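Case 403 in the screening queue. Each case pairs one protein sequence with one candidate compound; here the compound is (2E)-pent-2-enedioic acid. For every case the pipeline is the same: read the inputs, emit a complex structure as tokens, and attach any notable structural observations.

Predict complex for case 403.
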Amino acid sequence: MSINTKGFYSTLAVKMEASAIREILKLVQNPEVISLAGGMPDPATFPTEELNEVVKQILAKNSACALQYSSTEGLTELREFILNWLAEVKEKAGLDNIMITSGSQQGLDLVSKVLLNPGDTLIVELPSYLAALNAFRSYGGEMVGIPMDDEGMQIDILEETLAKLKNDRKKVKFIYTISNFQNPAGVTMSLARRKKILEVAKKFEVLILEDNPYDKLRFEGEPIPSIYSLDNEGYVISLGTFSKILCPGLRLAWILGNKKIIEKLVIMKQATDLCTTALNQLIAYEYCRQNDIDKNIESNVEIYRRKRNAMLEALDKYFPVEVIWTKPQGGFFVVATLPEHIDTGEMLKEAIKENVAYVPGGSFFADGKGQNTMRLSFCYPSVEDIDEGIKRLGKVIKRRIKN
Ligand code: PMP
Ligand code: G9A
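Case 403 output:
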């Protein structure tokens, strides 16, 4: 008889639930199902031939380095490339301010490990990226949610909340925000709010964790400076990633921040995975050195803009008037809000029977609300599938509204 493992788990392992997104990804293996669920990049955006070329070169000429352990901070040439490429950080960040991570998911994990004691409070947007919430939960972080509107997190409510928490003698460690084309809401924080959030963070002496994976995927309008670039006092830790602009399979991302915090993050990473794979770092570096990554991003933006347009058109065409949704200027996601009585978690079974999937909104809300919302991703399915998927979903919702 095999061992009963039940008595061995940590309190945390008993408490943690599987990610709703990753569970739905398993459910929608059936090719008949049109998935508007996962935030996977379109494989057509991967520069496969160019990557193939650099992999061959690296293994032929530089295998001793590529196949070896590397420094925990990450390869110097890749870090230098990133610092020079991100125009807005060029002046303010040096090699001491940047480290490479195995995906920004690892960044979220390491920041939590460095900053959170069980029971510490942190601020999140309502809704927010579910795998980030799980990372914070896994270190015992207690989340307080702040609602958003068209301009992002509502800073007046943030300020009131921080004042109240201070009064209650609660230690708030950081404010987590996805400033551009938020996951899941698709909302972008305005410049005025970015300035204000910094002011408020400084007033209450709280750090800001700015997660910015969709930054370069803007379909229209002018880019807005990141909160990181507006800060001169080391309050902001910024996460960037190659996942949405090159490919997620390399698992390559970076953290920018205060030198002291980067030092702590590096020590934690040593205990986590020693280093990010040198091979993948060299692949990204050589790809960027030999090709124009901005050009690749431009053509990816074309692809995603077409898909965003297809989704917004389909929503107008097929969703009933009782439903409202966000209109993102970039990124991968739209959030739709249904009449209060509809539970999208429960409705998912019916949608899958109609061969369409989405992520129920509830798991993105740290306050347990949002049951009548859903996240719709336009990044992965084709334009035709987006139209057909929204059509199928519209049918399911109309049936629910009638009942
Ligand atoms: N943060 C946000 C807001 C994301 O949407 C994602 C990916 N969906 C991540 C972090 C993780 O990205 P990576 O592939 O770099 O780990
Ligand atoms: O979990 C993944 O595969 C990444 C996608 C994230 C998302 O759907 O938000």
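Case 403 observations:
- Residues 33 and 355 are 4 Å apart (CA to CA).
- The first strand starts at residue 34 and ends at 35.
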